[in-house]
Amino acid sequence: MHERVDLVSGCQSSPLFPARVFGNGTRVEQTNVISSLTHIMRLTRAAFVFAREGVFGVVDPALVPPPAQLLLRLARLIERPGEKQGPTLSRALIRLGPAYLKLGQFLATRPDVVGVTLARDLENLQDRLPPFAQREAEAAVSASLGCALEQAFVSFGPAVAAASMAQVHRGEVLRDGSRHPVAVKVLRPDVAVRFRRDLSDFFFVARKAEAWSAEARRLRLVEVINTLARSVTMEMDLRLEAAAASEMAENTRDDADFRVPEVDWNRTTHNVLTMEWVEGIALNDHASLRQAGVDLPELGRKVIQSFLRHALRDGFFHADMHPGNLFLDPAGRLVAVDFGIMGRLLQHERRILAEILLGFITRNYRRVAEVHFEAGYVPAQHSIENFAQAIRAIGEPIHNRTAEEISMARLLTLLLEVTGLFDMRTRPELILLQKTMVVVEGVARGFDPRLDMWKVSDPVVRQWIERNLGPIGRVEGALGGAGEIARVVMDLPGIARRAVTVLEQLETMTREGVRLSPESLASMGRDRVRADRITQVALWIIAATLLAILLTNLWLHCNQKCEIAAIIDCGVISWPASPFAGLMKA
After folding, report:
1. How far from each other are the two terminal CA atoms of the chain, in whole angstroms?
2. Which of 43, 254, 397, 438 is most buried, by CB atoms within 10 Å?
3. How far is the C-alpha of 181 from the C-alpha of 340, rounded, in Å?
4. Whether the Cβ atoms of residue 16 and residue 233 lie closer than 8 Å to each other
């Protein structure tokens, strides 16, 4: 199956972004004046909501050009009275609907795009909306499972949580003669249509921004919206979320401090996800945790080490680990839910991350800079020495503070700010890791404000570094490289045959010219006939236009000649002797 990519937005083919497909199979987004006006009208409404909620009041006028400063002052005139405090952008995004709410949550993971302050504002954005009707949910589950609701579930209760894309119901299933509680996640009706409309507006803004701004091109705003679109597309297929949960369950099956609810694949489809019901205390319920006698500092340690273990050891981590998605079960294990947003790090990326952290710990700033250049994160035209100097400005203050005052998340945030000065292109995988680390660190320090991040992280990070950057890791890397070389050597006969075939074809083309199939010749002939027909029509139009101009000039010339001849005959003007005199007399 061939993947078709939108040439304008770069968005991969998905149900959210249908596009017209032309005869050659190329997918082209339809942009015209009418669609642009539609985008502008919807965006104008969004701007009005932003202004009404006071969003533009937090923008520094000095950072925008003079014409925009006037618009900012006008926007302040329609602010809602009494709404000067609090997360203004979060309120506006909630008012604008699910797609904007999801955009805000996504941008909270991108402080490189919106800034650290705004990202912290968006961290408080809660994806909570009123649930849709119970009968609609029951009808959707029945239609999706292809059977009556009573056949699939012994009981199906009302919604216990509702978000922008789906809502969760508590149900019960009959298994081995006993009733087992389950969580049933159901997509909202027609959610894809609403997201497709609003995401098209986001693409419109991102393309215009990249066309006008070099900074927007560096931040790759179109790619940012593309990432959001891919994430939303995956979240709208609950089978993919179930697969993510299943993969993480396999990765963590031997972990003593962490587990994943079991997926009920028999009751999971595109629009419905059924999982084991989690019995435990949510990590945002501090009062219940204290009442249960939970060791909160130890719980913070579990959160940090579990996240780092998933990111470094597995390369697959839960990227939405806020306290509402984490529970503590009766056995003292962390249980995660909602696997719609996941992050991946390849082995190469994990190695880069580990070397960067190790370089900061050992104060080897030159090596940190070299890693960035070796990975291609910083363009080669920049100076490694200057970049190492900028890295030193981040690292040295760390060594003048106590361990409990050092934030790994803050370190990565400062690193992103510095790399922006050296034209480092956005790395979505590292940004998502950094943002998740900010959230995880905040959760852990909520349980223990004096948490020593480096001490807690040291066992996991040191184990990974020793395993992968130490002698064993180097030997395995060499063996892996040898394996690649062996595969290439084994494939050398095939490579040689293909090379000979290509050379023979080039020789034939050089000697006899390019040969085209009858179908290609027929297609070219039809195209040539069509082009010749268009050319002939254009030539006839040009000839007719020139003929009309010539006749008009002759008519004007004859009228002028008659008038001049009449004046000469009356003796008013004495026409000088010239070669044109005979023509005027004729």
Report:
1. 80
2. 438
3. 22
4. yes
Interhelix angle 98-107/221-235, rounded to 10 degrees, is 120
Take residue 227 and report the two structure tokens written for it.
Answer: 């990432």
Distance CA 442, CA 457 (A): 14
As a whole-number percent, the residues of the chain with pLDDT over 90 amount to 20
- Helical residues (DSSP H) of 282-383, grouped into ranges: 286-291, 296-308, 347-362, 365-374
Catalytic residues: 320
Classified as helix, coil or strand, 344 is strand
Would the CA dihedral through 15, 17, 19, 24 be positive or negative? negative
Beta bridge partners of 175: 178
CA-to-CA distance for 228 and 203, rounded, in angstroms? 10
Asked whether residue 485 carries a pLDDT value surpassing 80, the answer given is no
Query: How far apart are the C-alpha atoms of 544 and 375, rounded to whole Å?
Result: 64
Largest CA distance in the chain: 126
Lookup result for tokens 């249509």: 193
Amino acid at 25: G
Chain centre distance of CA 492: 40
Distance, in Å, from the CA atom of 441 to the CA atom of 451, rounded to the nearest integer, reads 9
- Cα–Cα nearest to 346, from 436, 415, 429, 419: 429
Closest CA to 437 of 457, 455, 423, 417: 457
Note whether 343 and 316 are within 8 A (CB): yes
Helix, strand, or coil here: 235? Answer: helix
At residue 430's C-alpha, the angle toward residues 424 and 435, to 5°, is: 115
Burial classification of residue 111, based on how many CB atoms lie within 10 Å of its CB (0-12 exposed, 13-18 middle, 19 or more buried): buried
pLDDT digits (tens, 9 = 90+) for 493-534: 777 777 777 767 766 766 666 555 666 656 666 666 665 565
* pLDDT at residue 140 in the model: 93
CA dihedral 235, 238, 244, 249 (to 10 degrees): 140
Residue whose pair of structure tokens reads 């291609």 in the numeric block:
376
Residue 149, SS3 per DSSP = helix
